[in-house]
# Entry
Amino acid sequence: MAQGQGNSKHDEKAVRPPDRPAWRSLPQMRYQNAYVWILFFSSMDVLLTLLILSAGKDTTMEINPIARFVIDGWGGLHGLGMAGASGLKFTLVVLAIVICEIVGRSSDRKGRRLAWVLAVIAAVPVVWSLGLLLMNQAILSGVE
# Structure
């Protein structure tokens, strides 16, 4: 190899800025703390939904029309309905994380803000479900 001519792959790596990952690389996730909360609240949402729907038998129903369609369409609560709803929920979680990562590559501030906003949004159904369970417990115990 002549002097001044190097390996093209080596030269390509030398030119790339260090903060910009290669298109096939797997860099560290940017907003891991927010993602843990999104995953926690989403998991709690699935578990509390299962608890409420199981306890309510035929008197309760899922208020999210898309989740209700998936649960009913896949055999109801005792069929594959909750598995389908869980799959839907966690597919949306993965999509949200990917969107946060894409936004974060162009603007760290916007990506971080989006991740935390999504964590707060994921907490809303959990707070709602816990409120329903507490209200139902108070009604059942005779305390109003």
In short: The mean pLDDT is 82.
